[in-house]
Amino acid sequence: MANDMLEGRSRSGVPHQTRPADGLVTAVEGTLADFLTCQIAALDEVDPALGGFARTTRDIVLAGGKRLRPAFAYWGWRGVVGSREPVGPVLPALGALELMHTFALVHDDVMDQSATRRGLPTAHRLFAAQHTGEGRIGDADHFGSTSAILVGDLCLVWADQLLAQTALTTTTLFAVRSRYDRMRIEAVAGQYLDVLGESQPAEWSLERALLVARHKTASYTVQRPLQFGLALAGTAHDESDAIDDAYHRYGIAVGEAFQLCDDLLGVFGDPTITGKPASDDLRTGKPTALLMLARQLATPTQRAELDMDPALASEDPAALSPARIARLAEVIAETGAVAQVESLIMQRVEQGLAALADAPIHDEARAALTDLAVSTTHRPS
């Protein structure tokens, strides 16, 4: 049922374009690999254990992923400079966004106590296994969480260092840093609201769930990377204000749609495709837009099923049985909330494409951003 829901979403009314093959992912990952090699060597000289820590961090950074933030930043930049400008000088800035993303993912996994990410053990699970495997004293889970927090911290510092290697004028670098700093603040703010929502779900609402989506996901996944790319192009462009406005409107709309898609995948996604458990949102009681809509649409009987048993609320959420998790997903589907979320996704994709329609950007970038709007919000993982 879950896969049918996700695969059966209609794309009617949304044009589909094919993104130009530009080797962007390969170029970004090559930049990251070269940078991380130097960082590992520097830490190896201090202590071999630090070199090992850095290698594990490198493996986490390079362990797959969609590389969406560099992609949106790249096309935000291409929208201004066109297709002839070489990408090499801005690759460090694009790679920095991926390091920042790793910071956010690793810390998020610790907060959510997630077991897998991209089909592999999460950082805290990986370090806990190392602790146990090497027969160290102390609590392995505590060591794992502590080490994962440090991995995230290190990635955030490395992101700053890599960004500083971008070949930009001082004026342009300041403009880029301004976008980058705002993006980081909004990501942290959204994450705090996300954590807060789990602690007081009865006080949450659909509007507040969408506010979390805007700050936790839309801002640092789509909107700010696009504007980051605009800043990379420099400020001497007559149409900068109009482009900035178009990127702002597209970014918020498509970014929220991206999070709404994540909400669906967090309940109905196939773990073998998403690389993470489908039950995490239900296990933690995360008040996503999907769950808020389900509560609004539910009958009294359905609402009673959606509300966690008070006896369970004081226990470890991981103790929820697979049968209970499966039933919660069924009730959510029965309320009609899935169709409502899919409608919200479609509306936002259409709003995003409308923002691009008359934007003074190069057509190649418009086509690529059209494709990204569709592919990132109609995806299996």
**Which spans of ≥5 residues are poorly predicted at pLDDT below 50?**
1-21, 309-315
What is the gyration radius calculated from CA atoms? 21 Å
Q: Estimate nothing, just give the exact number of structural domains.
A: 1
Report the end-to-end length measured between terminal Cα atoms.
16 Å
Mean of all residue-level pLDDT scores: 88
Q: CATH superfamily membership, which one? A: Farnesyl Diphosphate Synthase
**Major sheet: arrangement of strands:** 1-2
Q: Report the top-level CATH class.
A: Mainly Alpha
**If you consult CATH, what is the topology?**
Farnesyl Diphosphate Synthase
Biggest pleated-sheet summary: 2 strands, antiparallel
Percent of residues in helices comes to over 70%
Class derived from helix and strand content: mainly alpha
Oligomer: single chain
Inertia-based shape: flat
According to DSSP, the number of beta strands is: 2
H-E order: HHHHHEEHHHHHHHHHHHHH
Proportion of strand residues: under 5%
Tally of DSSP helical segments? 18
